[in-house]
Amino acid sequence: MSGYQALSYWDLVAASVFLVLNAGFSIVLRLGLTRNLIISALRMTVQLLLVGLILKLIFNAGSPWWTLLAAAVMVAFAGREIWARQERRLKGLWGPGLGAGAMLLAGSLVTIYGLAGQIRPDPLWLPQYALPLFGMVLGNTMTGVSLGLDTLHTALTKGKRDVEAQLLLGRSRWEATRPATRQALRSGFTPIINAMAATGVVSLPGMMTGQILSGVDPQEAVKYQLLIMFLLGGATGMGVLGATFGSLWRLTDTRHRLRLDRLSGGK
User: Fold this and answer.
1) In-domain check, residue 68
2) In total, how many domains does the chain have?
3) What average pLDDT does the structure give for the chain?
4) Residue 14, φ and ψ in degrees, nearest 5
5) What is the pLDDT of residues 47-61, one digit of tens each?
6) Are 78 and 139 within 8 A, CB to CB?
7) C-alpha–C-alpha distance, residues 231 and 113, integer Å
8) Confidence band for 266, pLDDT divided at 50, 70 and 90
9) Residue 145 contacts residue 240 (beta carbons within 8 Å)
10) Each residue of 1-17: pLDDT tens digit?
11) In the chain, at which residue ranges do the beta strands (DSSP E only) sit?
């Protein structure tokens, strides 16, 4: 097999038949999921079709400014998702800004490192390489950061008395909040750890599968998938660490007091 088989829109319609069956089962069993299934599927279809058209224009333009603009839009939407997934959020600009900033810093650093050190496109910002890699890094980092922040804020709120008791005993803010910090970091790291543990044995990742279907040698596809997973793991870890400790710094002060008044719903 020298190449992949081009898909028609009718092929996509045929592939959606099982999703339609699931919607039918939801109606029969009165699960109340039919509307969500249909809306999610339609939203995904429209979003992907639009993204495909936009990426085609960006690829044809070959401009670093369009590539940078697309990356900025991706960061903005991912930052909004991090903020929306938290039950308790930091007040003010810290709410959307902390998660987006940690994700942007970690994602940009790892993406540039991967492009310059391993993939080496010419030019470096070539959108066909930069945007897909940056998107994968952002998606995984977003999940880890949102879980880490939500876990930290919930743990501090529920364990407020324990933390303040430790502070009264003379512990520093970092020592008193250590259990909540560890819980948040574990929560943020868990998805990427599970993904790495299951890759290859339980599942074949999408990128690797796509390369194999397009005729790339499986060994070469494995190398690229390993590269991507290492970069994703590194970016997720840095993003979770930065966001968690940044939020912890915001929710305490130099007098070693717990400042849950800076957290919506934290009192």
Assistant:
1) yes
2) 2
3) 89
4) -65, -35
5) 899 989 999 999 998
6) yes
7) 9
8) very low
9) yes
10) 455 567 788 988 899 99
11) none
Both tokens of 192, joined, read: 């990427």
At residue 252, the 3 state secondary structure works out as strand
The boundaries of the domain holding residue 25 are 1-61
* Dist CA 203 CA 196 (whole Å): 10
Query: Using an 8 Å Cβ cutoff, are 67 and 73 in contact?
Result: no
pLDDT over threshold 90, residue 145: yes
- 267 assigned to some structural domain: no
Quick one: CA dihedral 20, 23, 25, 27, positive or negative? negative
| Alpha carbon distance 162, 179 (integer Å) | 10
Question: By three-state DSSP, how is residue 254 classified?
Answer: coil
Residue type, 79: G
Q: Which residues contact 123 (CB under 8 A, 6 or more apart)?
A: 64
Is 0.70 surpassed by the pTM of this model?
yes
User: For residue 36, how far is the Cα from the chain centroid?
Assistant: 22
Tell me: the pLDDT tens digits for 81-137?
Answer: 999 888 899 999 999 999 999 999 999 999 999 999 999 988 889 999 999 999 999
Rounded to whole angstroms, the Cα distance separating 258 from 247 reads 12
Half-sphere exposure (CA, 13 Å, Cβ side) for 31?
A: 13
Q: Which two tokens stand for residue 80?
A: 């909004």
Q: Which two tokens stand for residue 90?
A: 């930091």
Same-domain check for residues 194 and 156: yes
